[in-house]
Amino acid sequence: MVISVVGHSNPDTDSVTASIALAAFFTAQGQEAQACMQSAAGDLNPESQVVLEKFGLDTPVEISDAAGKDIALVDFSDLAQAPANLADANVVAVVDHHKVGDLTTNSPILFRAEPVGCTGTVLCKMFKEAGIAIPKNVAGGMLAAILSDTVNFKSPTCTDDDKVAVAELKKIADVADTDALFMDMLKAKSSVAGVPAKDLLFRDYKDFDMNGNKVGVGQLELATLDQVADIRGDLMGAMEEAKSDGRHSVLLMLTDVVKEGTDLVVLSDDPALVEKAFDGKLENNVMWIDGMMSRKKQTVPNLQSAFGC
Ligand code: MG
Ligand code: MG
Ligand code: MG
Protein backbone atom coordinates (compact mmCIF):
# COMPACT_ATOMS: atom_id res chain seq x y z
CA MET A 1 0.00 0.00 0.00
CA VAL A 2 1.21 3.50 -0.72
CA ILE A 3 2.38 5.32 2.39
CA SER A 4 0.69 8.68 2.91
CA VAL A 5 3.18 11.02 4.60
CA VAL A 6 1.50 13.84 6.48
CA GLY A 7 2.42 16.67 8.85
CA HIS A 8 0.30 18.37 11.49
CA SER A 9 -2.97 20.20 10.90
CA ASN A 10 -2.68 23.86 9.88
CA PRO A 11 0.53 22.81 8.16
CA ASP A 12 3.60 25.03 8.32
CA THR A 13 6.54 24.92 5.93
CA ASP A 14 8.24 22.14 7.91
CA SER A 15 5.14 19.93 7.85
CA VAL A 16 4.72 20.48 4.11
CA THR A 17 8.34 20.05 3.02
CA ALA A 18 9.03 17.21 5.48
CA SER A 19 6.15 15.23 3.97
CA ILE A 20 7.72 15.79 0.54
CA ALA A 21 11.18 14.83 1.80
CA LEU A 22 10.13 11.69 3.69
CA ALA A 23 8.03 10.56 0.72
CA ALA A 24 11.13 11.02 -1.49
CA PHE A 25 13.19 9.08 1.06
CA PHE A 26 10.75 6.14 1.10
CA THR A 27 10.51 6.22 -2.70
CA ALA A 28 14.31 6.08 -2.98
CA GLN A 29 14.18 2.99 -0.75
CA GLY A 30 11.71 1.33 -3.12
CA GLN A 31 8.55 1.97 -1.10
CA GLU A 32 5.54 3.65 -2.62
CA ALA A 33 4.88 6.93 -0.85
CA GLN A 34 2.96 10.12 -1.41
CA ALA A 35 3.37 13.54 0.21
CA CYS A 36 0.11 14.71 1.80
CA MET A 37 -1.05 17.65 3.89
CA GLN A 38 -4.03 18.58 6.05
CA SER A 39 -4.99 21.56 3.95
CA ALA A 40 -6.50 22.30 0.59
CA ALA A 41 -3.91 23.66 -1.83
CA GLY A 42 -5.61 27.05 -1.86
CA ASP A 43 -5.59 27.29 1.94
CA LEU A 44 -1.87 26.65 2.31
CA ASN A 45 -0.11 29.40 4.28
CA PRO A 46 1.57 32.08 2.15
CA GLU A 47 5.09 31.25 3.32
CA SER A 48 4.77 27.62 2.23
CA GLN A 49 3.27 28.68 -1.09
CA VAL A 50 6.31 30.86 -1.76
CA VAL A 51 8.66 28.00 -0.84
CA LEU A 52 6.92 25.41 -3.05
CA GLU A 53 6.93 27.83 -5.95
CA LYS A 54 10.53 28.95 -5.47
CA PHE A 55 11.91 25.42 -5.51
CA GLY A 56 9.45 23.98 -8.03
CA LEU A 57 7.98 21.46 -5.60
CA ASP A 58 4.60 19.81 -6.18
CA THR A 59 1.93 20.75 -3.63
CA PRO A 60 1.19 17.74 -1.38
CA VAL A 61 -2.20 16.07 -1.82
CA GLU A 62 -4.90 16.95 0.70
CA ILE A 63 -5.75 14.25 3.24
CA SER A 64 -8.50 14.64 5.84
CA ASP A 65 -9.36 11.04 6.76
CA ALA A 66 -6.66 8.51 7.64
CA ALA A 67 -8.93 5.46 8.03
CA GLY A 68 -7.57 2.33 6.35
CA LYS A 69 -4.39 4.03 5.11
CA ASP A 70 -0.70 3.44 5.74
CA ILE A 71 0.41 6.70 7.34
CA ALA A 72 3.75 8.26 8.20
CA LEU A 73 3.72 11.32 10.45
CA VAL A 74 6.18 14.17 10.19
CA ASP A 75 6.59 17.16 12.52
CA PHE A 76 4.10 15.89 15.15
CA SER A 77 2.81 12.91 17.10
CA ASP A 78 -0.14 14.51 18.91
CA LEU A 79 -3.53 13.01 18.04
CA ALA A 80 -5.14 16.47 18.33
CA GLN A 81 -3.10 17.54 15.30
CA ALA A 82 -3.74 14.42 13.20
CA PRO A 83 -6.16 13.72 10.34
CA ALA A 84 -9.49 12.19 11.38
CA ASN A 85 -9.62 8.49 12.26
CA LEU A 86 -5.90 8.02 12.76
CA ALA A 87 -6.85 5.23 15.19
CA ASP A 88 -8.20 3.29 12.19
CA ALA A 89 -5.01 3.82 10.17
CA ASN A 90 -1.76 1.88 10.15
CA VAL A 91 0.92 4.30 11.33
CA VAL A 92 4.22 3.06 9.92
CA ALA A 93 6.63 5.88 10.81
CA VAL A 94 7.09 9.08 12.81
CA VAL A 95 9.85 11.61 12.11
CA ASP A 96 9.67 14.59 14.41
CA HIS A 97 11.38 17.18 16.59
CA HIS A 98 8.64 17.87 19.18
CA LYS A 99 7.76 16.36 22.52
CA VAL A 100 6.43 12.84 22.03
CA GLY A 101 2.66 13.06 21.74
CA ASP A 102 -0.12 10.64 22.62
CA LEU A 103 0.06 8.42 19.54
CA THR A 104 0.29 4.68 20.20
CA THR A 105 0.73 1.85 17.67
CA ASN A 106 0.04 -1.89 17.55
CA SER A 107 3.33 -2.83 15.92
CA PRO A 108 6.90 -1.56 16.02
CA ILE A 109 7.51 1.39 13.73
CA LEU A 110 10.27 3.64 12.49
CA PHE A 111 10.28 6.34 15.18
CA ARG A 112 12.88 9.06 14.82
CA ALA A 113 12.60 12.16 16.98
CA GLU A 114 15.43 14.46 17.95
CA PRO A 115 15.55 17.65 20.02
CA VAL A 116 16.62 19.82 17.08
CA GLY A 117 15.03 22.90 15.53
CA CYS A 118 13.29 21.31 12.57
CA THR A 119 12.11 18.01 11.10
CA GLY A 120 14.14 18.98 8.02
CA THR A 121 17.31 18.61 10.08
CA VAL A 122 16.34 15.10 11.20
CA LEU A 123 15.50 14.15 7.62
CA CYS A 124 18.82 15.55 6.37
CA LYS A 125 20.59 13.15 8.73
CA MET A 126 18.41 10.23 7.63
CA PHE A 127 19.28 10.79 3.95
CA LYS A 128 22.96 11.01 4.84
CA GLU A 129 22.96 7.88 7.00
CA ALA A 130 21.12 5.92 4.31
CA GLY A 131 23.51 7.14 1.59
CA ILE A 132 20.62 8.58 -0.42
CA ALA A 133 21.23 11.79 -2.39
CA ILE A 134 18.70 14.55 -1.61
CA PRO A 135 17.07 15.85 -4.81
CA LYS A 136 17.91 19.53 -5.38
CA ASN A 137 14.36 20.84 -5.10
CA VAL A 138 13.64 18.71 -2.01
CA ALA A 139 16.81 20.11 -0.39
CA GLY A 140 15.51 23.62 -1.08
CA GLY A 141 12.27 22.84 0.73
CA MET A 142 14.11 21.33 3.72
CA LEU A 143 16.44 24.34 3.85
CA ALA A 144 13.50 26.75 3.87
CA ALA A 145 11.83 24.74 6.65
CA ILE A 146 14.90 24.94 8.90
CA LEU A 147 15.18 28.70 8.39
CA SER A 148 11.47 29.04 9.13
CA ASP A 149 11.33 26.79 12.21
CA THR A 150 14.51 28.28 13.73
CA VAL A 151 13.54 31.85 12.75
CA ASN A 152 16.81 32.14 10.85
CA PHE A 153 18.75 30.59 13.77
CA LYS A 154 17.37 33.07 16.34
CA SER A 155 14.95 30.69 18.07
CA PRO A 156 16.10 28.97 21.28
CA THR A 157 15.11 25.73 19.56
CA CYS A 158 17.99 26.12 17.09
CA THR A 159 20.90 23.70 17.54
CA ASP A 160 24.30 23.23 15.93
CA ASP A 161 22.81 20.30 14.00
CA ASP A 162 20.38 22.72 12.32
CA LYS A 163 23.25 24.95 11.25
CA VAL A 164 25.18 21.99 9.87
CA ALA A 165 22.09 20.86 7.93
CA VAL A 166 21.60 24.35 6.47
CA ALA A 167 25.24 24.46 5.34
CA GLU A 168 24.80 21.13 3.56
CA LEU A 169 21.36 21.78 2.10
CA LYS A 170 22.17 25.24 0.72
CA LYS A 171 24.95 23.67 -1.37
CA ILE A 172 22.63 20.97 -2.73
CA ALA A 173 19.81 23.46 -3.37
CA ASP A 174 22.24 26.01 -4.83
CA VAL A 175 21.06 28.83 -2.53
CA ALA A 176 23.80 31.41 -1.99
CA ASP A 177 22.09 33.78 0.45
CA THR A 178 19.96 32.13 3.14
CA ASP A 179 19.27 35.50 4.85
CA ALA A 180 17.63 36.71 1.64
CA LEU A 181 15.61 33.49 1.40
CA PHE A 182 14.48 33.96 5.01
CA MET A 183 13.43 37.58 4.40
CA ASP A 184 11.41 36.53 1.32
CA MET A 185 9.68 33.93 3.48
CA LEU A 186 9.10 36.37 6.36
CA LYS A 187 7.59 38.88 3.98
CA ALA A 188 5.11 36.27 2.75
CA LYS A 189 4.47 34.84 6.21
CA SER A 190 3.81 38.18 7.89
CA SER A 191 1.58 39.65 5.23
CA VAL A 192 -1.71 40.46 6.93
CA ALA A 193 -3.22 42.89 4.44
CA GLY A 194 -6.71 41.84 3.44
CA VAL A 195 -6.54 38.54 5.33
CA PRO A 196 -9.54 37.78 7.59
CA ALA A 197 -8.61 37.77 11.30
CA LYS A 198 -9.81 34.19 11.67
CA ASP A 199 -7.40 33.04 8.95
CA LEU A 200 -4.57 34.90 10.68
CA LEU A 201 -5.34 33.25 14.04
CA PHE A 202 -5.38 29.78 12.47
CA ARG A 203 -2.49 30.36 10.04
CA ASP A 204 0.00 28.80 12.46
CA TYR A 205 -2.13 27.36 15.25
CA LYS A 206 -2.16 24.27 17.45
CA ASP A 207 -4.58 22.80 19.97
CA PHE A 208 -3.30 20.96 23.02
CA ASP A 209 -4.96 18.90 25.71
CA MET A 210 -3.75 20.25 29.04
CA ASN A 211 -4.99 18.20 31.95
CA GLY A 212 -8.40 17.80 30.30
CA ASN A 213 -8.57 21.41 29.06
CA LYS A 214 -8.44 22.31 25.40
CA VAL A 215 -5.87 25.05 24.95
CA GLY A 216 -5.14 26.66 21.58
CA VAL A 217 -1.97 28.56 20.75
CA GLY A 218 -1.56 30.53 17.54
CA GLN A 219 1.52 32.42 16.42
CA LEU A 220 2.07 35.21 13.93
CA GLU A 221 5.69 36.00 13.18
CA LEU A 222 6.01 39.65 12.23
CA ALA A 223 8.75 41.99 11.11
CA THR A 224 7.16 44.59 13.44
CA LEU A 225 4.10 44.71 15.72
CA ASP A 226 2.93 47.74 13.71
CA GLN A 227 1.75 45.24 11.10
CA VAL A 228 -1.14 44.22 13.37
CA ALA A 229 -1.81 47.56 15.10
CA ASP A 230 -5.05 48.17 13.21
CA ILE A 231 -6.46 44.66 13.46
CA ARG A 232 -5.99 43.77 17.13
CA GLY A 233 -9.72 44.11 17.76
CA ASP A 234 -10.53 41.79 14.87
CA LEU A 235 -7.97 39.25 16.10
CA MET A 236 -9.56 39.37 19.56
CA GLY A 237 -12.95 38.71 17.94
CA ALA A 238 -11.55 35.66 16.15
CA MET A 239 -10.05 34.45 19.45
CA GLU A 240 -13.38 34.88 21.24
CA GLU A 241 -15.06 32.80 18.57
CA ALA A 242 -12.40 30.09 18.86
CA LYS A 243 -12.69 30.10 22.65
CA SER A 244 -16.47 29.75 22.57
CA ASP A 245 -15.89 26.52 20.63
CA GLY A 246 -15.08 24.48 23.74
CA ARG A 247 -11.66 25.86 24.58
CA HIS A 248 -10.44 26.75 28.08
CA SER A 249 -7.88 29.18 26.72
CA VAL A 250 -6.86 30.69 23.41
CA LEU A 251 -3.44 32.36 23.14
CA LEU A 252 -2.06 34.30 20.21
CA MET A 253 1.67 34.95 20.07
CA LEU A 254 2.38 38.12 18.11
CA THR A 255 6.10 37.58 17.70
CA ASP A 256 8.36 40.44 16.66
CA VAL A 257 11.18 38.61 14.89
CA VAL A 258 13.41 41.69 14.81
CA LYS A 259 12.96 42.73 18.47
CA GLU A 260 13.00 39.05 19.47
CA GLY A 261 10.00 38.98 21.77
CA THR A 262 6.27 38.28 21.80
CA ASP A 263 3.16 40.25 22.57
CA LEU A 264 1.11 37.43 24.08
CA VAL A 265 -2.65 37.89 23.69
CA VAL A 266 -4.66 35.77 26.10
CA LEU A 267 -8.31 34.78 26.39
CA SER A 268 -8.81 32.30 29.20
CA ASP A 269 -11.27 30.96 31.74
CA ASP A 270 -8.41 31.43 34.19
CA PRO A 271 -6.22 34.40 33.19
CA ALA A 272 -4.36 34.24 36.52
CA LEU A 273 -3.13 30.76 35.61
CA VAL A 274 -1.69 32.07 32.35
CA GLU A 275 -0.09 35.04 34.15
CA LYS A 276 1.50 32.59 36.57
CA ALA A 277 2.73 30.46 33.67
CA PHE A 278 4.69 33.36 32.22
CA ASP A 279 5.36 35.31 35.40
CA GLY A 280 3.75 38.38 33.88
CA LYS A 281 0.77 40.70 34.19
CA LEU A 282 -1.93 40.94 31.54
CA GLU A 283 -3.08 44.40 30.55
CA ASN A 284 -6.15 44.40 28.33
CA ASN A 285 -5.49 40.68 27.74
CA VAL A 286 -1.93 41.29 26.54
CA MET A 287 1.57 40.91 27.96
CA TRP A 288 4.94 41.51 26.26
CA ILE A 289 7.41 38.72 26.91
CA ASP A 290 10.97 39.59 26.01
CA GLY A 291 12.87 36.81 24.26
CA MET A 292 9.79 34.66 23.61
CA MET A 293 10.10 33.23 20.10
CA SER A 294 9.13 29.57 20.33
CA ARG A 295 5.71 28.10 21.03
CA LYS A 296 7.23 24.67 21.45
CA LYS A 297 10.08 25.52 23.76
CA GLN A 298 8.76 28.54 25.66
CA THR A 299 4.98 28.81 25.49
CA VAL A 300 3.69 25.24 25.66
CA PRO A 301 5.98 23.89 28.42
CA ASN A 302 5.17 26.85 30.71
CA LEU A 303 1.45 26.38 30.12
CA GLN A 304 1.72 22.66 30.74
CA SER A 305 3.37 23.11 34.11
CA ALA A 306 0.83 25.79 35.08
CA PHE A 307 -1.98 23.41 34.12
CA GLY A 308 -0.34 20.68 36.19
CA CYS A 309 0.34 18.36 33.25
MG1 MG B 1 5.50 22.48 12.45
MG1 MG C 1 8.76 21.71 12.68
MG1 MG D 1 6.60 26.58 13.45
Question: What count of domains describes the coordinates?
Answer: 2
CATH topology of the largest domain: inorganic pyrophosphatase (n-terminal core)
The largest pleated sheet is described as: 6 strands, parallel
- Mean pLDDT equals 96
Text of the CATH class of the largest domain: Alpha Beta
Report the bound ligands by name, code or SMILES.
Answer: magnesium ion
Structure class: alpha/beta
- By oligomeric state, this entry counts as single chain
**Molecular shape:** globular
> What is the end-to-end distance?
38 Å
Describe the overall structure:
- The protein is α/β, with parallel strands linked by helices.
- The protein has 2 domains: 3-187, inorganic pyrophosphatase (n-terminal core); 197-306, Diaminopimelate Epimerase, Chain A, domain 1, CATH 3.10.310.20.
- The chain has 10 helices and 11 strands.
- It has helices spanning 13-28, 46-55, 119-130, 136-149, 160-173, 178-189, 197-203, 232-243, 271-278, 295-306; strands at 3-6, 33-37, 61-62, 70-74, 90-96, 110-113, 205-210, 213-222, 249-256, 261-268, 286-290.
- The strands form 2 sheets. The chain has a 6-stranded parallel sheet with strand order 3-2-1-4-5-6. A 5-stranded mixed sheet has the order 7-8-9-10-11, with helices on both faces.
- Strand 1, helix 1 (13-28) and strand 2 form a beta-alpha-beta unit.
- The termini are far apart.
- The model has no long low-confidence stretch (mean pLDDT 96).
- The structure holds magnesium ion (MG) (3 copies).
- One magnesium ion binds next to loops.
